[in-house]
Design goal:
mainly alpha
Length: 219
């Protein structure tokens, strides 16, 4: 329980924790940034790390000169891309081993092939969009690997999504993070970054499921 409480506090007050780390350990903060982004995107059991808020706060700190913008973006981008590749590889390696049998109570081969087809046709936009959604960005590359999405296709959207996510959110913090209103409402902004994408994903899934359930109406 103490760890969970610390984790929640770290996520919500990542600006204060990061500033303290910089003051105490200096440039080692870049290694910490790399590690957090890599683990959040590359280890399927660690979806709760503060990706979006961390990028925004890093951009804000770069705007004040506490961190170097080019170094921070470069390292976090490499971590985001490498993390997704790691997650994809884990899914691609273990998926077939877990689902090596034919139809059974644990595995439906037809559903597996449908998942593969889905990721080949629509997986690209899923990989890119998931970058901006907590939890989903951790699981999307793993599922893409399990579904046997081709490596070249996955890598293209991995890099595209990584650039849009890391560069976009970090620059948003760089240009807007030090505005007085933003500084005074940073905690609310972090909560919004955590909750809004998830709510939008849930609403989209509910709407799609409702549409599928209703089916085509007879003419």
């Amino acid at each position: 329980m103490e760890f969970i409480a610390f984790l929640i506090d770290f996520v919500i007050h990542v600006d204060k924790h990061l500033a303290t780390f910089v003051l105490n350990y200096g440039t080692w903060v870049y290694a910490l940034l790399f590690l957090i982004i890599f683990v959040e995107t590359g280890v399927v059991v660690m979806p709760f790390l503060p990706g979006d808020s961390l990028l925004f706060v890093v951009g804000t700190m770069c705007g004040t000169g506490l961190l170097d913008l080019t170094t921070a973006i470069t390292l976090m981008l490499v971590a985001a891309i490498a993390g997704n590749q790691s997650n994809y590889t884990i899914g691609r390696y273990f998926g077939p081993k877990v689902f090596q049998w034919e139809d059974s109570r644990y595995f439906n081969k037809k559903a597996f092939m449908q998942a593969h087809e889905f990721y080949e046709r629509y997986g690209g936009i899923t990989i890119v969009a998931a970058r901006f959604m907590p939890f989903l960005r951790t699981f999307a590359p793993f599922v893409a690997g399990v579904a046997q999405m081709t490596r070249s296709k996955f890598s293209f959207y991995d890099v595209t999504g990584g650039v849009l996510w890391v560069v976009g959110v970090t620059l948003a913090g760089y240009f807007f993070g030090n505005i007085e209103w933003v500084k005074h409402n940073l905690e609310k902004i972090i909560w919004a970054m955590l909750l809004l994408p998830g709510l939008l994903a849930i609403f989209g899934a509910w709407k799609a499921r409702r549409s599928a359930a209703s089916g085509p109406t007879a003419g």
